[in-house]
């Protein structure tokens, strides 16, 4: 019993660390003067190599049979992860880190709206209420209610963030179709697929200046690839086997809260009263929508970070 309790405590510590790390990625990306595609590609490649090393160190290595069985959904979800990263990093450049992160956390709302069509799940009154509250919260976060459509750059960032949420929601839905494969093999393959998709896109569309690649930029890219992708994903997925899904869902909200606080402290990006109200509505609605219904049925949630 004591051993089991210790395992749960370690799992919670790993989960908290990974969520804290995910919450800081916007700060690092903001200080990398490279196109979003270049940052996303570097993140995917470094993360893939790191997880490959971890997979072989943990045991028998890669399960090619499990990968082959789920290859289509792994590649498709990996491509969506790559697009999701580009849109999220673009959002960081056009709006505040806090606003971009809150837009990103509309993903659970999109999953809720899609589930009745994709999985024939019933859209309950509680879910519908949470969707409505989150949408109202997003209006507050976007600032449209007091600036109208004049803040073009800000709105562009909001739309990029919402677009990232759409692709993130698509990854969550696709993950429900992936079976009989370890979390490490799945994530490693998805990151590799994301890198394959991002490579031609980056080469053809992005023009990174060699002058921008300074030692500091290299260090920041390494941190994003190793800490925010390799290590954080390893800790995140490693914690899942010892924690309940509801615990994972609740702890995941450390990520946006951390992002909002850090953007205010380090980037001087306060949300304002409207933004704070919107943040409470969006995060509160997303969290409540993931809590079990009265009949005890619990939603299953799979996350890939971003």
Radius of gyration of CA atoms, rounded to a whole number: 19 Å
Biggest sheet layout: none
Element-by-element helix/strand order: HHHHHHHHHHHHHH
Number of domains: 1
Query: What structural class do you assign from the helix and strand content?
Result: mainly alpha
Enumerate how many helices there are, as a single number: 14
Task: Specify the helix fraction band.
Answer: over 70%
Topology:
Blueprint (H helix, E strand, L loop, with lengths): L1 H29 L5 H23 L5 H6 L1 H24 L2 H8 L2 H12 L6 H18 L1 H4 L4 H24 L7 H23 L9 H26 L4 H7 L2 H13 L5 H19 L16
Task: Give an account of the 3D structure.
The protein has 306 residues and is mainly α. The chain is 77% helix and 0% strand. The chain contains 14 helices and no strands. The two termini are 35 Å apart.
């Amino acid at each position: 019993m004591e051993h089991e309790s210790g395992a749960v405590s370690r799992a919670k510590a790993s989960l908290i660390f990974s969520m804290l790390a995910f919450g800081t990625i916007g700060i690092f990306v903001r200080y990398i003067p490279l196109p979003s595609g270049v940052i996303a590609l570097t993140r995917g490649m470094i993360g893939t190599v790191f997880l490959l090393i971890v997979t072989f160190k943990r045991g028998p290595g890669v399960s090619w049979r499990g990968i082959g069985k789920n290859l289509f959904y792994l590649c498709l979800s990996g491509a969506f992860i790559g697009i999701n990263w580009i849109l999220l990093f673009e959002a960081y450049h056009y709006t505040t880190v806090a606003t971009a992160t809150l837009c990103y956390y509309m993903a659970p709302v999109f999953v809720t709206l899609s589930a009745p069509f994709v999985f024939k799940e019933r859209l309950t009154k509680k879910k519908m209420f949470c969707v409505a509250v989150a949408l109202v919260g997003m209006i507050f976060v976007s600032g449209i209610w007091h600036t109208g459509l004049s803040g073009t750059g800000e709105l562009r960032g909001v739309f990029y963030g919402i677009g990232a949420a759409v692709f993130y929601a698509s990854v969550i839905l696709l993950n429900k179709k992936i079976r009989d494969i370890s979390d490490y093999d799945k994530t490693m393959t998805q990151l590799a697929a994301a890198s394959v998709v991002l490579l031609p896109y980056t080469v053809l569309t992005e023009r990174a200046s060699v002058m921008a690649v300074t030692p500091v930029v290299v260090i920041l890219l390494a941190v994003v690839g190793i800490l925010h992708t390799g290590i954080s994903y390893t800790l995140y997925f490693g914690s899942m086997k010892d924690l309940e899904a509801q615990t994972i869902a609740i702890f995941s909200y450390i990520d946006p809260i951390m992002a909002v606080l850090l953007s205010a402290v380090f980037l001087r990006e306060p949300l304002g009263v409207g933004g704070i109200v919107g943040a409470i509505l969006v995060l509160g609605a997303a969290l409540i929508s993931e809590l079990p219904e009265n009949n005890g049925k619990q939603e299953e949630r799979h996350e890939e970070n971003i």
